[in-house]
């Protein structure tokens, strides 16, 4: 069974940066579409960023485009989310996600309902 372990969350001031990591075990990163979602209190889980299994297609949510960058290291079987220019509204629990059955090689999963595996989540808090 695939396991996803996130790390890197924490408390940061407005305008600061954080890098989240998601280590994949019992699976091969290059076979899956991977992504990050987040969920703030009282809100639905929303898509943040995703990358296809080939690593050459990246999509971002409207609220983070231009500030966040998703990347991956297949040798380390790890996906990263670099978050810059953080805002208080970025405060949420961030979840790593794996889609084990992407519809095609360029597909990026942006819908939480179709994610196959989730990490445990890591808290990101941005103070104003």
Overall spatial form: globular
Structural class: mainly beta
Fraction of residues in helix:
under 10%
For the CA atoms, what is the radius of gyration? 13 Å
**pLDDT < 50 runs, ≥5 residues:** none
Order of helices and strands: EEEEEEEEEEE
Write down the overall mean pLDDT.
95
| Main sheet: strands, sense, barrel | 7 strands, mixed
By DSSP (H or I, 4+ residues per run), the number of helices equals 0
Cα separation of the termini = 40 Å
Structure summary, number of beta strands: 11
Tell me the fraction of residues in β-strands, as a range: over 45%
Describe the structure.
Helix content is 0%, strand content 48%. The chain is globular and about 40 Å long. The mean pLDDT is 95. The strands form two sheets. Strands 2, 4, 5, 6, 9, 10 and 11 form a seven-stranded mixed sheet that branches. Strands 1-3-8-7 form a four-stranded antiparallel sheet, with no helix packed on it. With 128 residues, it is mainly beta. The chain has strands at 3-7, 10-13, 18-25, 33-39, 46-51, 58-60, 68-73, 78-83, 92-99, 117-118, 122-127. The N and C termini lie far apart (40 Å).
